[in-house]
## 1
Amino acid sequence: MRRIITVTQRKGGVGKTTIAVCAAAALARRGHEVALVDSDPQRSASHWAEPGNLEFPVYEMALEQTSVSAWAHDVRSIQAGVVVIDTAPNAREMGASIALANLILVPCTPSGLDLDATRQTLAIIDAARKHRRDRIKVILVPNRLDRRTLEARQLMDELSAFGEIIAPPIAARAAFVRCFTNGQSVTSFMPGDAADQEIQQLADAIEQAEREE
């Protein structure tokens, strides 16, 4: 059965592409047949893939120049067991990718603006849930977070109030920047590094959410 995982957030700059690429790579390394759809006009995931070192194909499929129905048809036509969508932070693209998703990852950094954007994102997801017979699962991903700080504890408390699954936090690490520069995922570039361990924990949460359906 094909699974579609959308990575989305109403606010830009929260690390969507890093999470999309690295989570996709971790799932591919675990034996899943994975493809990534880059629907963001900024093309960050496509740039990441240009050296050809990623463990999965990346399809550049921006929604700007096409209808939602045609775009959705093209996404559904991708031959892969797991399709990860890196989504632009605007209502049209978010709505289209959320409507297709079985599972949604919502990155959030320790910022009041991010929390407001997360509320807006969850409101869009809740609206989509009303039109679906199956359940859309959500994993909130605390990102760029130092677990030792008061900010981290406050963010985890805030996120828990939303009533969704919360992934283990991911820290702001230079490893992710180096991986982008080399066109690799952290799983292949720095296996066993702290950054890789955090991505593996996210992959664990994704697989657990899929098993519980």
## 2
Amino acid sequence: MKPGNGSAVKEFTLLGLTSDPELELLLFLFFFFIYTFTVLGNLSILLIVSGSTQLHTPMYYFLTQLSILDMAYSSVTAPKLLADLLTRKKTISFSECIVQIYFFGAFGSTEFFLLAAMAFDRYAAICNPLLYPLTMTKGLCARLVAGSYIGGFLHSLIHAGCLFQLSFCGPNVMNHFACDYPVILKLSCTDISLNNLLRFLLAALVVASSLLVILVSYSYIITSILRIRTTTGRRQAASTCISHFTCVSLFYGSAFLMEVRPSSSSSEEENKIIAVIPTMVIPSLNPLIYSLRNNEVKEALRTILYKTIKKL
């Protein structure tokens, strides 16, 4: 795959997070720990859910899909970031750059839709508990997950396709640690007005549609919880939503922080540091959120550990 007609640029140079060799080593160790924890933490969630029959419910089915997405989302940029922190020449070919942008956008958009599907699941469980087994069937759960992936990958495919219509004549230096869609647009020597328009409209569609489902679901959830007469009942109902709501707040909060910040008040250095939050930090937090805040996961983990130790 080659860039648009007239392009002279075949690869890009990434400036990374810093040019200080000592700081690069420290950052490598820090991000290596974060990425390792992300992979191991999300793999642990997958193993715990698959190994515990009591967790074979729609809620935990969606949780396993979230864990898969978090590992994939982080893996799009983490290996390249870690490798660049150990080398002086930080380059990436045009095709590799587009692939990175595509999968980063695809997994990120899919997670927006998946969080909305998880909110609908919580709505069905709390607002219609008697009909919940009939509502959240395996077929519906599979369709919601498939729809999330289809929507996310189609959204990113449009952006990636538009990038191949652009020409890049130089410069080829990105002040970033990864190929970032807004940054690469600025390097194009052709008109990018259509790309910027599509970026705004499609991002607004993805975020607004998923956020609308989440807000409507939680408005019904909160109303139902307030109608519960006992404090214990309200606390139990709310506890099933705390972990999901925390993940939603972190993911949407970081997205808004990256996209809504006025360019006049932020530098490129600040923007690339902020980009570390959703790409590296948040995927490592979700396993902690669901394991520390969820009694069923902790109980399942204790059971698995007990059985494992007993076998030894």
